[in-house]
Amino acid sequence: MIFTVPPNYPGMDRKVYPGFLQHTGFVAMNPERHAASHWDYYQSLLRGDEDDAEAHRRFYDEYNAVLDMDADYYLETIHVVFLDFCLAEGTWDVSCERVRTQDIKTTALFTIEGELDDISGDGQTYAAQDLCTGIPAKDKRHFTAESAATTAFSPAAAGAPSSIRSCATSSSSTTRRRRW
After folding, report:
1. If exposure means fewest CB atoms within 10 Å of the residue's CB, which of 17, 58, 118, 137 is most exposed?
2. 61-89 pLDDT per residue, tens
3. Where are the domains of the chain?
4. Sign of CA dihedral 32, 34, 35, 40
Protein backbone atom coordinates (compact mmCIF):
# COMPACT_ATOMS: atom_id res chain seq x y z
CA MET A 1 0.00 0.00 0.00
CA ILE A 2 2.97 2.33 0.48
CA PHE A 3 4.81 3.47 -2.61
CA THR A 4 7.63 5.83 -3.51
CA VAL A 5 6.79 8.89 -5.63
CA PRO A 6 8.54 8.24 -8.95
CA PRO A 7 11.10 10.55 -10.58
CA ASN A 8 9.74 13.44 -12.67
CA TYR A 9 6.95 14.11 -10.12
CA PRO A 10 6.91 16.68 -7.32
CA GLY A 11 7.89 14.97 -4.08
CA MET A 12 9.97 12.30 -5.83
CA ASP A 13 11.31 9.61 -3.51
CA ARG A 14 8.69 10.43 -0.82
CA LYS A 15 6.85 7.47 0.67
CA VAL A 16 3.07 7.83 0.21
CA TYR A 17 -0.23 6.00 0.26
CA PRO A 18 -1.23 6.92 -3.33
CA GLY A 19 -4.50 8.73 -3.96
CA PHE A 20 -5.41 6.38 -6.79
CA LEU A 21 -5.30 3.44 -4.36
CA GLN A 22 -7.49 5.30 -1.87
CA HIS A 23 -10.02 5.98 -4.62
CA THR A 24 -9.91 2.39 -5.84
CA GLY A 25 -10.57 1.22 -2.30
CA PHE A 26 -13.55 3.56 -1.93
CA VAL A 27 -15.13 2.35 -5.16
CA ALA A 28 -14.33 -1.31 -4.45
CA MET A 29 -16.38 -1.17 -1.25
CA ASN A 30 -19.56 -0.82 -3.29
CA PRO A 31 -18.96 -1.08 -7.04
CA GLU A 32 -22.61 -1.81 -7.86
CA ARG A 33 -23.75 1.46 -6.27
CA HIS A 34 -21.17 3.45 -8.26
CA ALA A 35 -22.01 1.71 -11.53
CA ALA A 36 -25.72 2.39 -10.97
CA SER A 37 -24.98 6.01 -10.10
CA HIS A 38 -23.05 6.53 -13.35
CA TRP A 39 -25.79 4.83 -15.35
CA ASP A 40 -28.36 7.12 -13.72
CA TYR A 41 -26.14 10.09 -14.57
CA TYR A 42 -26.03 9.02 -18.22
CA GLN A 43 -29.81 8.64 -18.23
CA SER A 44 -30.20 12.11 -16.68
CA LEU A 45 -28.09 13.57 -19.48
CA LEU A 46 -30.21 11.81 -22.10
CA ARG A 47 -33.43 13.15 -20.51
CA GLY A 48 -31.94 16.64 -20.25
CA ASP A 49 -32.35 16.61 -16.46
CA GLU A 50 -29.56 19.09 -15.71
CA ASP A 51 -30.40 19.36 -11.98
CA ASP A 52 -29.96 15.63 -11.44
CA ALA A 53 -26.82 15.53 -13.59
CA GLU A 54 -25.34 18.49 -11.69
CA ALA A 55 -26.03 16.81 -8.34
CA HIS A 56 -24.13 13.75 -9.59
CA ARG A 57 -21.21 15.89 -10.78
CA ARG A 58 -21.02 17.76 -7.45
CA PHE A 59 -20.98 14.52 -5.49
CA TYR A 60 -18.30 12.87 -7.63
CA ASP A 61 -16.18 16.03 -7.79
CA GLU A 62 -15.82 15.66 -4.01
CA TYR A 63 -15.70 11.87 -3.94
CA ASN A 64 -12.96 11.70 -6.57
CA ALA A 65 -10.81 14.40 -4.94
CA VAL A 66 -8.00 12.39 -3.38
CA LEU A 67 -4.34 13.15 -2.86
CA ASP A 68 -1.34 11.06 -2.05
CA MET A 69 -1.13 10.75 1.73
CA ASP A 70 2.20 10.87 3.53
CA ALA A 71 3.10 7.27 4.44
CA ASP A 72 4.05 8.03 8.05
CA TYR A 73 0.79 9.88 8.64
CA TYR A 74 -1.29 7.11 7.05
CA LEU A 75 0.44 4.31 8.95
CA GLU A 76 0.21 6.21 12.24
CA THR A 77 -3.52 6.78 11.66
CA ILE A 78 -4.09 3.07 11.00
CA HIS A 79 -2.16 2.23 14.16
CA VAL A 80 -3.73 4.86 16.45
CA VAL A 81 -7.33 4.66 15.21
CA PHE A 82 -7.92 1.12 13.95
CA LEU A 83 -5.41 -1.13 15.69
CA ASP A 84 -4.97 0.33 19.17
CA PHE A 85 -8.22 2.38 19.44
CA CYS A 86 -6.19 5.07 21.23
CA LEU A 87 -8.91 7.74 21.28
CA ALA A 88 -11.55 5.35 22.59
CA GLU A 89 -9.13 3.87 25.14
CA GLY A 90 -7.93 7.30 26.33
CA THR A 91 -4.31 6.58 25.36
CA TRP A 92 -3.82 8.97 22.42
CA ASP A 93 -1.02 11.52 22.81
CA VAL A 94 -0.55 14.45 20.44
CA SER A 95 2.67 16.48 20.76
CA CYS A 96 3.40 14.65 24.04
CA GLU A 97 0.03 15.67 25.52
CA ARG A 98 -2.75 13.21 26.30
CA VAL A 99 -6.01 13.80 24.41
CA ARG A 100 -8.72 13.93 27.08
CA THR A 101 -12.13 13.97 25.43
CA GLN A 102 -13.78 14.33 28.83
CA ASP A 103 -12.16 17.78 29.11
CA ILE A 104 -14.11 19.12 26.13
CA LYS A 105 -16.76 21.25 27.81
CA THR A 106 -17.29 24.56 26.03
CA THR A 107 -18.52 23.46 22.62
CA ALA A 108 -21.54 21.78 21.13
CA LEU A 109 -21.20 18.36 19.50
CA PHE A 110 -23.01 17.36 16.32
CA THR A 111 -22.41 13.89 14.88
CA ILE A 112 -23.86 12.72 11.60
CA GLU A 113 -23.94 9.36 9.86
CA GLY A 114 -25.32 7.94 6.65
CA GLU A 115 -27.42 4.83 7.15
CA LEU A 116 -25.79 3.20 4.10
CA ASP A 117 -22.33 4.77 4.44
CA ASP A 118 -19.73 2.39 3.01
CA ILE A 119 -16.77 4.14 4.65
CA SER A 120 -17.72 4.49 8.31
CA GLY A 121 -19.77 1.88 10.08
CA ASP A 122 -23.05 2.36 11.90
CA GLY A 123 -22.43 4.12 15.21
CA GLN A 124 -18.86 5.13 14.41
CA THR A 125 -19.41 8.88 14.65
CA TYR A 126 -22.08 8.52 17.35
CA ALA A 127 -19.37 7.07 19.61
CA ALA A 128 -18.09 10.63 20.10
CA GLN A 129 -21.28 11.34 22.06
CA ASP A 130 -20.15 8.86 24.73
CA LEU A 131 -16.47 9.87 24.62
CA CYS A 132 -17.16 13.57 25.22
CA THR A 133 -18.60 13.23 28.72
CA GLY A 134 -17.86 16.86 29.62
CA ILE A 135 -20.35 18.22 27.09
CA PRO A 136 -23.86 18.56 28.56
CA ALA A 137 -26.56 16.46 26.86
CA LYS A 138 -28.41 19.64 25.84
CA ASP A 139 -25.40 20.58 23.67
CA LYS A 140 -25.20 17.22 21.88
CA ARG A 141 -27.03 16.31 18.68
CA HIS A 142 -26.91 13.32 16.38
CA PHE A 143 -28.45 12.76 12.97
CA THR A 144 -28.58 9.59 10.88
CA ALA A 145 -29.48 10.29 7.26
CA GLU A 146 -31.77 7.46 6.22
CA SER A 147 -30.91 5.81 2.89
CA ALA A 148 -27.81 8.05 2.57
CA ALA A 149 -24.64 6.45 1.29
CA THR A 150 -22.32 9.13 2.63
CA THR A 151 -22.66 12.27 4.72
CA ALA A 152 -19.11 13.51 4.44
CA PHE A 153 -19.99 16.86 2.92
CA SER A 154 -22.57 18.73 5.00
CA PRO A 155 -25.64 18.28 7.18
CA ALA A 156 -27.71 19.90 4.42
CA ALA A 157 -26.46 17.40 1.84
CA ALA A 158 -27.40 14.59 4.18
CA GLY A 159 -30.94 15.88 4.51
CA ALA A 160 -30.65 16.97 8.13
CA PRO A 161 -33.57 19.08 9.36
CA SER A 162 -32.91 22.83 9.29
CA SER A 163 -32.91 22.97 13.10
CA ILE A 164 -30.00 20.53 13.20
CA ARG A 165 -28.20 22.26 10.32
CA SER A 166 -28.36 25.57 12.20
CA CYS A 167 -27.05 23.87 15.35
CA ALA A 168 -24.10 22.49 13.40
CA THR A 169 -23.20 25.80 11.78
CA SER A 170 -24.05 28.24 14.55
CA SER A 171 -21.38 30.76 15.47
CA SER A 172 -22.65 31.33 19.01
CA SER A 173 -20.24 31.11 21.92
CA THR A 174 -21.48 27.61 22.79
CA THR A 175 -20.35 26.21 19.44
CA ARG A 176 -16.91 27.78 19.10
CA ARG A 177 -14.18 25.29 18.35
CA ARG A 178 -11.69 24.54 21.04
CA ARG A 179 -8.30 23.01 20.35
CA TRP A 180 -7.77 19.81 22.34
Report:
1. 137
2. 988 889 999 999 999 999 998 899 999 99
3. 19-67, 100-175
4. positive
